[in-house]
Amino acid sequence: MKTYEMRIYTLKSAEAAMAYREIWIKHIESLKAFGIVTHGVFTMASDPVKVVALVNYPDGADPKAASDRYMASELFKADMAGFDFAWFSSVETTLLTPATFSPLQ
After folding, report:
1. Which of 31, 66, 68, 96 would be 4's cystine partner, CB 3.0–4.6 Å?
2. Structural domain spans, the chain
3. Among 67, 72, 74, residue whose Cα is nearest residue 91
4. What is the pLDDT, as a whole number, of residue 52?
């Protein structure tokens, strides 16, 4: 069964969150090279400094190891070019396992 992960990025301003959402357009493609599939990137109307992404990892993959490999890659570095990492306040991750009846398997 696939492992899903909800990633909640909190940025220091709504403008930084908007800029990071634009980077996710690139991440969707570059993550594929690592077998990581993006199912959605979301905003939170109640909190404009947050960006939420739902991804899944290949069967049997260690999500932290896969994420670390991606973040060490040239693809990730290219995606993030020009973005100031100091704009992040926090990143929260939650691993999710779909219920047997879930459309996401």
Report:
1. 96
2. 1-53+85-96
3. 67
4. 98
